[in-house]
Design goal:
The chain is built from 15 helices and ten strands. The chain is of the alpha+beta class. β2 and β3 form a beta hairpin. It is elongated, with a radius of gyration of 32 Å. The model has no long low-confidence stretch (mean pLDDT 80).
C-alpha cells in the first residue's frame, strides 16, 4: 500500500487532540448522506408522479392517432392495414370523435363524444381498468348506450339507467328551418381516470351509433394505434406519415400534451439543481474539516517532509482523508435513499398513521398516494456528481497542506 493512502486512512480513524475536528467530520458525513438520500427520494417521487400522470392520460389517449383532419377518414380500413405493418405497432382501432351537447332534465353540458369499437378499443388504451360502473362491452351497436366520466355525470346529476339527450352540432335542414339533430342515450357506465379534463368532458358510445348520429355513413374520424414502446411514438409517427400519400394527419401523444410534460421535465431539472445545494453544503463542510486537520497536523506534515515526502504526496494524504469522508457519507446516503424510494408505499402510510395526517387528501388531489419510481440512472448521476464535488472540496485544503514549511512548523515543537 502506498504511504499516502495508508496515512490518509489512518488520519480518518485516529484519535485527535481536537475533538471539534471529529465532530465536523461526522456532520460532514451525515450532511452528505442526507443530501444524497433526499435527492434520490425526491427524484423518485417526481418520476412516480410523472409515470402515474402519463399512465392516466394514456388510459384515454392512444400513442398515435391517424385522422383525416377536418374531414372524415373514408379509407380507414386501408389505413389500418398499412399502419399495422409498422414494426412497433401492436394494435389499432377506429374511432369517431365530435363535439356534442349532453342534456338531462334542466342541465346541459358540452362534451367530446367518442364512438369506439369496444373489443378493439380495449387493445389500444387502458380505459377498461378505470371503469367505476359497467364495462365497455355494454356499448353494443344500435342500443344507444353511453358511458360518462364521473365528473360529467355529477354535473348532469345522472345515474345508471337514466336517459340523456345528445345534440349534434350540425342540424337537419327542413323546409321550415334548420332543426337540431337529437338522440336519446341510456347511461350504462361511469369511468374515472383521475384527470379532470376527461372525467368532466368525455362520453363514450358505440362507433356505429356515432356514425348514425353524425351522419358519417361508413367513414370514421380516424384510427388509434398502440405501440410496444410509448416513447417511440414520435419516431413511428414520422415514419408512418411518409408511408401515406393521401391527405391524412398523424399525431402522437407527446404533441397533445407537450407543454405539460415539458413543464414536468423542467421542474424535475430545477428541483435536482436546488437539492444539489445540500450536497454542496456538505462538501463545504469537508473543506472546513480538512483545513482544520491541516492546521492540527502541521508537525506531522513537517516530519513527513523531512523524511522525503513530496508536496504531491502530502496533497494525496489529505485528498484520501477527504474522499473517505465523502465516500462514507455517499454510501450511507445511497443506501438510505434507495431503501426509502423502494419502500415508500410502506413508509408513507406508517408516517401518516403516526402523525395522524394524510399528506395527499383524496378530496383535494387526484393522486392520493405518494408514488415512487426509482431510476438507477438518476442514482448513478447523483452518485457521480456528489463524488466529484467531494474530490473538488479536497483540493484547496490539500494544497494548503502541501505548502507547509517544515522549518516553520517544527520551530516550537
Amino acid at each position: 500500500m502506498r504511504y499516502e493512502l495508508w496515512v490518509g486512512l489512518r488520519y480518518t480513524r485516529a484519535k485527535r487532540r481536537n475533538h471539534f475536528i471529529s465532530f465536523i467530520s461526522l456532520f460532514s458525513m451525515l450532511g452528505m448522506a442526507l443530501g444524497v438520500a433526499t435527492l434520490i427520494v425526491v427524484l423518485s417521487v417526481m418520476n412516480g408522479f410523472q409515470k402515474e400522470l402519463r399512465t392516466r392520460i394514456l388510459s384515454v389517449v392512444s400513442h398515435i392517432e391517424i385522422s383525416g383532419g377536418p374531414d372524415p377518414l373514408a379509407d380507414w380500413r386501408g389505413v389500418m392495414r398499412e399502419a399495422e405493418k409498422a414494426p412497433r405497432v401492436v394494435a389499432a382501432a377506429p374511432y369517431v370523435q365530435a363535439q356534442s351537447m349532453i342534456i338531462y332534465d334542466q342541465a346541459a353540458r358540452g362534451a367530446i363524444v367518442r364512438g369506439i369499437d369496444p373489443p378493439e378499443e380495449e387493445k389500444v388504451v387502458g380505459l377498461a381498468r378505470h371503469m367505476k360502473i359497467g364495462n365497455l362491452g355494454m356499448l353494443a351497436p344500435s342500443e344507444f348506450n353511453i358511458i360518462l366520466g364521473v365528473d360529467l355525470a355529477r354535473a348532469l346529476n345522472v345515474g345508471i339507467g337514466d336517459k340523456v339527450t345528445l345534440v349534434a352540432p350540425e342540424g337537419m335542414v327542413t323546409p321550415v328551418a334548420v332543426m337540431p339533430r337529437l338522440k336519446q342515450f341510456r347511461v350504462v357506465g361511469l369511468f374515472e381516470v383521475g384527470n379532470y379534463e376527461y372525467d368532466s368532458g368525455l362520453a363514450l358510445i358505440n362507433i356505429r351509433d356515432a356514425q348514425k348520429l353524425y351522419r358519417l355513413g361508413n367513414d370514421v374520424t380516424g384510427v388509434r394505434l398502440k405501440l410496444d414502446d410509448l416513447f417511440a411514438a414520435p419516431a413511428v409517427a414520422r415514419e408512418l406519415l411518409s408511408h401515406f400519400t393521401s391527405n391524412v394527419y398523424v399525431t402522437d401523444w407527446t404533441r397533445g400534451h407537450a407543454n405539460f410534460f415539458r413543464a414536468v421535465a423542467i421542474e424535475k431539472t430545477m428541483m435536482m439543481l436546488i437539492l444539489f445545494l445540500i450536497v454542496a453544503v456538505a462538501a463545504f463542510n469537508i473543506i472546513s474539516t480538512l483545513v482544520m486537520a491541516v492546521v492540527d497536523k502541521q508537525a506531522d506534515i513537517a516530519i513527513l517532509r523531512t523524511l522525503g515526502a513530496s508536496p504531491s504526496g502530502i496533497m494525496q494524504i489529505f485528498i484520501v482523508q477527504g474522499a473517505f469522508i465523502g465516500i462514507v457519507g455517499l454510501a450511507l446516503g445511497v443506501g438510505l435513499g434507495v431503501g426509502l424510494a423502494l419502500n415508500l408505499e410502506t413508509v408513507v402510510p406508517f408516517l401518516e398513521h403516526v402523525l395522524g395526517v394524510h399528506f395527499l387528501d383524496k378530496s383535494v388531489y387526484y393522486i392520493s398516494e405518494l408514488p415512487s419510481d426509482l431510476h438507477w440512472s438518476d442514482v448513478g448521476l447523483i452518485t457521480g456528481v456528489s463524488f466529484v464535488l467531494t474530490l473538488l472540496a479536497t483540493i484547496y485544503p490539500s494544497w494548503r497542506g502541501s505548502r507547509v514549511n517544515p522549518a516553520e512548523a517544527l520551530r516550537y515543537e
